[in-house]
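Each record in this resource describes a single protein on a pair of labelled lines. An example record follows, reproduced without changes.
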Amino acid sequence: MARILVVDDDPDILALVRLKLEACGHDVRTAPDGEAGLAAARAEHPDLVVADWMMPRLTGPQMLAQMRADPATATIRFILLTARAQEAQESGIDGFVAKPFSLADLAAGVDAVLARGRSGA
């Protein structure tokens, strides 16, 4: 399946998301904040980043902006986990999952973004 980087400062959410995505067959790496997530994205070049909006050191949107500005990471697909659905839609992301979210909704969102990427859309 896909290589996915999950970035969240809440260790419980990080663990739950990781377990769910691994159960779906994905290779999952994690990072505890936006700065560590950006470094991991640059080093590992995952197929998809799933990141929380509000994190220390770099927020999800700040992380996305830096990734899009770097040719090495500009094409990595990006999903935000957020309660700010309207702002998320305007941020240039590939998808978002509104908080509070179910793990099934998260898995469906990941599948949809990955499928769009494979089809070239």
